[in-house]
Design goal:
Number of helices of chain B: 9
Structural class of chain B: alpha+beta
Number of domains of chain A: 2
Largest sheet of chain B: 6 strands, mixed
Low-confidence stretches of chain B: 360-371
Largest interface: A-C, 108 and 106 residues
Shape of chain A: globular
Helix content of chain A: over 70%
Mean pLDDT of chain A: 82
CATH superfamily of the largest domain in chain A: MetI-like
Helix content of chain B: 10-25%
CATH class of the largest domain in chain A: Mainly Alpha
CATH topology of the largest domain in chain B: Rossmann fold
Radius of gyration of chain A: 24 Å
CATH class of the largest domain in chain B: Alpha Beta
Largest sheet of chain A: none
Order of helices and strands of chain B: EEEHEEEHHHEHEHEEHHEEEEEEEEEEH
Chains: A mainly alpha (about 300), B alpha+beta (about 375), C mainly alpha (about 300)
CATH architecture of the largest domain in chain B: 3-Layer(aba) Sandwich
CATH topology of the largest domain in chain A: MetI-like fold
Number of domains of chain B: 2
Oligomer: heterotrimer
Chain lengths: ~300, ~375, ~300
């Protein structure tokens, strides 16, 4: 599973230069572009629709037939303002960001040394540990929440950031270990031998030679860990019951469930956008790294 | 500066994979020892055992008369140059060179001084703030060398340091290496598969094959008195002619010709005759030991021609001769001289050198040889 | 692997265990303990009837489960959801991967857009889909009624048991097709173009090439993607919980929702634990089977 995505374009004839005699060429091109547009619409459609909803006035939202592109007088930022005034979305964003960033850093700090040990230090039982780590990535969180709930109750960690930070660190550890290990194994061995001869001990070598060299890999892994932590739902739903400690996914989901008859479509849509925006930005800037991380070490839905 | 000694070194990965079988030798201060041999002969493994990167299965590595088997590489006070140079890509040239000293807690002004001094010797002053990615191959090689020199180690270890350079640069750096290490009075252990490097750089050459030391000697001895058939064939280019011949009384039979075997040992039924192509020459009319043959291949090496000759009366025996480019010969048949003093004799069974009378005395003190 | 007397190596290994220890401890605490605990608790009754104190009850929980129609329905729902969404995701993911593997202008941006759904929070995305399938103002109804004229009147998609399941599956397919396509695309890119050229010189059509080169060489990626998708889909919680809450009338109640309700709503911890154990065992069995096939396929294709 060490294939990384190469982005080198395949050698195909340049666009717009149909060779004479190749009758099927334009048709193929048209089909390809239809397919590409379909992919784009499919992937963006629901998000775009949420966005359009979020900037429409309530009247425009409930107008029939459906208003796709609001008229100039149907635009509003009211829904966003409501999220931050009537709801506590400022706090939710902070909670999500704090928990996700802390657990990501913790995960890298704990996972990279473990990955290094498994990549280079020739521990007995290494294969067994790796297999266990790999299998663990397959466990749905629902299998864990009952036991964790007990731990949280016994330790009194409910409504404490640690109740999320520790599980989030754990759920991202297998991925971190597998991705970082595959990066460590790609490092030239001579470098570490040279460092040994220079007098670096294992820990110094890890912190001063190996980790600085694998900074891009740490970023890749960190982004993935952040995404998983930001998106987690069931632990956040269960362990954080106090209103001001909720994370964005839980808060957004509960926004829709509060009143049955007067569903706040506008704020809901706005909450969707607020909750997904950080991830959209991450994907925009780090698409390559995300793909590389997902394909290089481990895979996770 | 300290003596390096290997005692009965053995590395066994599995019963079938034993890269180093039994190796003992010593390298004194100021000596430049080169391990040379075909790939898989155990030379790199030996170097890595000296460095502490591999642990010997049996035997001892001793530096300055102390067993260092249990010491980590960093505690052995050795410096090593790697084939890939192994520069830390995230550090500047200066930090690369200084890294070992920093770990030894050398005071920072002394580090600055020593790095500057070493940088000066190797002409790296202008490059100190660059990262390795911004250096050429030759420059990287120098940085790697500087990183070793600045340590002032007890032993220098170099693992094929020239093989990543292109041919032109290699010769230049080889000459520089010679000058630099001539100025050091520290044991140097150098690993290469390139016999030119071995011959030009070393004070002593250790030829390894199959996990055993074949010969340990000064370069000219290795060339002039190869201890066995393997060394004879491995050192020297073009390769030495090695002909397995039948013996009759005190002569070896080469086609229609008889070549007298010198005294000093009882002639066996079969013997290996070795003669370097560069020692085979066109016969002058008055020459005693000549053979006639037919040229079937001429290879132009520039300054000389390498002729492959089928010896008269022995259709399957080929003798190769290196003739200088200005010599002329009859294109088909020619008469070659095999000077007796240039002929090496080897035991056909075990490949060992058979001492001729005049060198017998000296070979007695040679080291035991196995293969 | 044998323990060694080599002191350098021994020190290195000691450091190795120390480096591994924090990660191992956290993984044991968060993964091993809850699973192990569930096994133990599944033999106890711990609910409001016992005053939330565990009372040993042998296999009572399992017997109850065998007779529990709601449990079997939830298993059935999870199975339907998993199988259908997995098949659709594989087909669609393969199509996406093939498209994204073509050379065209703006490919980088299209690839970025194509991974977007995977990166977004499922719980929030469930809200978006709930809005799309809204019976009154939903855009899906509007498109079918006013654009394509397929429907006369709007349909209450999430209010109909069959349609609700289909809608949840549709949302899941939207969310995770991109994940499958990322994996398959990486696999596609590792197949040498020479193979296709050689094959087409032999006179093969693109479809033949796809069948005879792409599919077999992609089999490891397909299986890995299936394995991960299976595990995630079988345990899916956030999507149905937010989108339908398991309704209407339990039509989309997955086994995970049932576990959650058992524990959190009915405070029946012992029975919840037994449900966890069974779900875990189902997962382990399927994973073991598929890794077995995976290794067979790897051996057969020689692809790592």
């Amino acid at each position: 599973m060490t294939t990384t995505a190469h982005d080198t374009p395949r050698q195909t004839p340049p666009a717009g230069h149909a060779t004479p005699g190749a009758q099927s060429f334009p048709l193929k091109k048209v089909l390809l572009w239809v397919a590409i547009i379909a992919v784009v619409l499919f992937s963006l459609g629901p998000v775009l629709w949420q966005w359009l909803t979020s900037i429409k006035t309530n009247d425009a939202i409930t107008e029939l037939p459906v208003v796709y592109f609001p008229a100039p007088n149907q635009y509003t930022l009211q829904h966003y303002i409501e999220l931050f005034t009537r709801e506590r979305f400022g706090a939710y964003i902070f909670n999500s960001a704090f928990v996700a960033i802390t657990s990501t850093l913790l995960c890298l700090a704990i996972g990279s040394p473990a990955a290094y040990a498994l990549a280079r230090l020739r521990l007995p039982g290494e294969q067994f540990i790796l297999a266990a780590v790999l299998i663990v990535t397959l466990f749905p969180y629902i299998l864990l929440f009952l036991g964790l709930l007990e731990i949280v109750r016994v330790t009194g960690l409910a409504n404490n950031y640690l109740a999320l930070i520790i599980p989030y660190t754990a759920i991202n550890l297998p991925l971190t270990i597998l991705v970082m290990r595959s990066f460590f194994q790609q490092l030239p061995r001579d470098l570490e031998d040279s460092a040994k001869v220079d007098g670096y001990n294992t820990v110094q070598m890890l912190t001063q030679i190996v980790l600085p060299m694998t900074l891009p890999a740490l970023v890749t892994t960190g982004i993935l860990a952040f995404i998983f932590a930001w998106n987690e739902y069931i632990f956040a739903l269960t362990f954080m019951t106090r209103e001001n400690l909720k994370t964005i996914p839980v808060a957004a989901a509960q926004l829709g469930g509060t009143t049955l008859f007067d569903v706040p479509f506008g704020p809901l849509a706005a909450a969707t956008i607020v909750g997904t925006l950080p991830l959209i930005l991450l994907v925009l800037f780090f698409q390559r790294k995300i793909v590389q991380g997902l394909t290089s070490g481990a895979v996770k839905g | 500066m300290a003596k390096l000694e290997l005692r009965h070194l053995n590395k066994t990965y599995s019963p079938k994979i034993v890269p180093v079988k039994d190796l003992s030798l010593a390298v004194e201060d100021g000596e430049f020892l080169t391990f040379v041999g075909p790939s898989g002969c155990g030379k790199s493994t030996t170097l890595r055992m000296i460095a502490g990167l591999e642990q010997p299965t049996k035997g001892e590595v001793r530096i300055g008369d102390r067993n260092v088997n249990a010491k980590a590489p960093g505690d052995r006070n050795i410096a090593m140059v790697f084939q890939s140079y192994a520069l830390y890509p995230h550090m500047t040239v200066h930090d690369n060179i200084a890294s070992g000293l920093k770990l030894q807690k050398v005071p920072s002004n002394e580090i600055r001084h020593r790095v500057a001094e070493t940088g000066h010797i190797l002409g790296l002053e202008e490059l100190m703030d660059r990262k390795p990615a911004k250096l050429s191959g030759g420059q990287r090689q120098r940085v790697a060398l500087a990183r070793a020199l600045v340590r002032r180690p007890d032993v220098f270890l170099l693992d094929e340091p020239l093989s990543n350079l292109d041919a032109l640069l290699r010769e230049q750096v080889r000459a520089e290496l010679k000058q630099i290490f001539d100025a050091q009075s520290t044991p140097v252990v150098y690993v290469t598969h390139d016999q030119t490097e071995a011959m030009t750089l070393s004070t002593k050459v250790a030829v390894l094959n199959n996990g055993y030391l074949q010969q340990l000697d000064a370069p000219h001895e290795i060339y002039n008195k190869p201890a066995n058939q393997f060394v004879a064939g491995f050192i020297g280019s073009p390769q030495m002619n090695l002909l397995t011949l039948k013996c009759q009384s005190n002569n070896a039979i080469l086609g229609d010709y008889r070549i007298p075997i010198p005294g000093g040992f009882a002639p066996p039924p079969e013997i290996v005759l070795g003669i370097r192509p560069e020692h085979v020459r066109l016969a002058r009319p008055d020459e005693r030991q000549t053979i006639q043959g037919q040229v079937f291949l001429v290879e132009n090496l520039g300054m000389s021609y390498l002729l492959s000759v089928r010896v008269k009366g022995a259709e399957n025996v080929t003798v190769r001769a290196l003739l200088s480019a200005d010599q002329r010969w009859n294109n088909e048949d020619l008469t070659l001289a095999l000077p007796l003093e240039s002929i090496h004799w080897f035991n056909a069974q075990n490949g060992d050198r058979l001492p001729t009378t005049h060198e017998e005395a000296r070979l007695d003190q040679g080291i035991p040889v196995k293969r | 692997m044998t323990t060694t007397t080599d002191p350098i190596r021994a020190r290195e290994q000691r450091t190795g265990w120390l480096l591994l220890a924090p990660a191992a401890l956290i993984l044991l605490a968060i993964y091993a303990y809850p699973i192990g605990r569930a096994f133990v608790l599944s033999f106890f009754t711990e609910n409001l009837g016992t005053g939330l104190e565990p009372v040993f009850s042998g296999v009572d929980n399992y017997v109850r489960m065998a007779l529990d129609g709601r449990f079997w329905l939830s298993i059935w729902n999870s199975t339907i959801f998993t199988v259908v969404s997995l098949i659709l995701e594989l087909i669609l993911g393969m199509a996406f991967a093939l498209i994204l593997d073509q050379a065209f202008r703006g490919r980088g941006i299209v690839r970025t857009i194509a991974i977007l759904p995977w990166a977004l929070p499922t719980a929030i995305i469930a809200l978006a889909w709930r809005w799309i399938f809204n019976d009154q103002y939903g855009v899906w109804n509007d498109m079918l009624v006013n654009w394509f004229h397929i429907l006369e009147n709007p349909v209450n998609w999430l209010g109909n048991p069959t349609w609700a399941m289909i809608c949840v599956i549709a949302a899941d397919v939207w969310k995770t097709t991109s994940f499958v396509s990322i994996l398959l695309l990486a696999g596609l890119q590792s197949i040498s173009q020479d193979l296709y050229e050689a094959h087409s010189i032999d006179g093969a059509t693109p479809w033949q090439s796809f069948r005879q080169i792409t599919l077999p060489l992609l089999m490891p990626q397909i299986l890995i993607a299936s394995l991960f998708r299976f595990a995630q889909a079988f345990g899916i919680f956030d999507l149905p919980q937010v989108m339908t809450g398991g309704g209407p009338g339990g039509a989309t109640e997955m086994v995970s929702l049932y576990i959650y309700a058992t524990v959190m709503n009915y405070l029946d911890f012992g029975y919840g634990a037994a449900l966890v154990v069974i779900t875990f065992l189902v997962l382990v069995a399927v994973v073991a089977l598929s890794t077995f096939f995976l290794s067979k396929v790897r051996n057969a294709t020689g692809v790592q």
